[in-house]
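Entry for the shared binder. Reason: the reviewer on the internal report wants the predicted structure included alongside the sequence.
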Amino acid sequence: MASYANNYVFLLLCLGLSFCTIAFGGNFNTDFNYLFGDFRANIQTGGNVASLQMDKYSGSGFGSKNAYLFGRFDMQIKLVPGNSAGIVTAYYLSSEGDHHDEIDIEFLGNVTGQPYILQTNIYANGVGGREMQYYLWFDPTQNFHTYSIDWNPQRIMILVDNQPIRVSRNKQGSGVPFPTNQPMRLYTTLWNGEAWATQGGTMKVDWSKGPFTAWFSNFNANACVPSQSNNCVGFNGGTNRGLSIDSRKKLNQIYSKWLVYDYCHDVRRYANGLPNECRRKSPRRMALED
């Protein structure tokens, strides 16, 4: 959970902006709405813990009541154990419409004994295709681990147990789209992605192993909730400092050892030319040079 000091800085920054509301999320009962799945979506222990279940009839999901424009969002997640091939556990921010913005953390289910893949992606003005995938260096089904999205006008940082694994800087001045003006809601969903999620879709869901359950706990959002458009533009949340030397070293190790897909290296997918930011400088290099 965020410290009192961080919350205080957040509050001061927000009060300096017109029509801005500070949000300190922390309870599934008060901060989320049921999306789909009927009894498969459950809230327990007074709102501190939620579970999502999927069977052959449906998945399930929750969505935040607030739409946010910048902030840090932390969630502890324990993933589906055993053979979870074809199942996607998602934790993400998204706006609405054809030109939506989105920041994704998705866990791609695995065959028993194989590592989970954590996939990140960023959409801006409806343009995505910026996936980076990682093997997790621990078993995410045994215990809760904290997964975070830290988003402000200058950059997006995705963290695992408070360690950055991806840093994407705002390069709009170089023609690279970046989410800066569309408020986004936070979502947790469990759904059937067997068409693509495990070994390119060759491994399908084994329904005899279901129902499948993922767990979510200790949600926290230190974020700006706009009451009119674009009124959080100057809001950084007190988290716009660069990476520490230790974080850079660990990030380099993650890129070297655990990164398994980087869209900037996929010349087959982008046969007509890599995205603009890849031709200038790769996302991993921009992060390490910060």
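Summary line for the report: Helices lie at 4-15, 28-31, 245-257, 276-280, 283-288.
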